[in-house]
Amino acid sequence: MSSESADVRSIDAIDRFRVALVEFIDAGRISVSEADSDLDRNVIWLERDRVPHWTRQIRKRQELVTRAKSDLYRKQTQSSAKDGRASVVDEKVALQRANRRLEEAQARLNATKTWLRRLEQERINFKSAMSGFSVAVDHDLPHAIGLLKRMTENLESYLALAPPDLQKLITPDDPVDADPSMRRTGTGDGRDTDQRNDPDASEESA
């Protein structure tokens, strides 16, 4: 068999392969769409929810720090005015706690912005990496499916043709006569041929 000829053994196998390609395209599109949506949702969540949240928390906790400082200063002032030594332990503890909570909010905001930048870059990388796959899923594979469909249709049309009548091909309806140029001339007794071949015999007969 020639290396360029197709060895098609089953049209059903071609159909099954075509169906598998259709399912692969659907699954591929869904997977890429879901991954892209997940990235978008996380970017939006960080950008529109977490960053504003921790920004608000920083403002609130700054107010708590300011209030704790005021409480400590007021307590210290009152103690000095009375020339006594009132305890300011609670105020100092409250100020330390307020400072820690403010630092926590600032760290959370910085971490959120860092992850937001990384995720945005990963989203760009993902879209770039998936561009070739998207072209294959949206263009190349559908084109291949169309070719496979036409192939099966052509094969089915070929198989539906009636087989030729070999007897008619081998035995013509009208037998061909022998070539007239090959026929023998004369009376059939051979004398004409002998006379042409023997000049003396021709003279005697004259």
Describe this structure in words.
The protein has one domain. It is mainly α. It is rod-shaped, with a radius of gyration of 51 Å. The protein starts with 10 loop residues before the first helix and ends with a helix. It is 79% helix and 0% strand.
Shape: rod-shaped
| Contiguous runs where pLDDT drops below 50 for at least 5 residues | none
Count of the domains: 1
On the 0-100 scale, what is the average pLDDT? 80
Summarize this structure briefly.
With 206 residues, the protein is mainly α.
Give the tags:
0% strand; 206 residues; 5 helices; single chain; mainly alpha
Topology:
Layout: H1 11-81, H2 89-160, H3 166-170, H4 191-197, H5 199-205
Helix pairs in contact: 1-2, 4-5
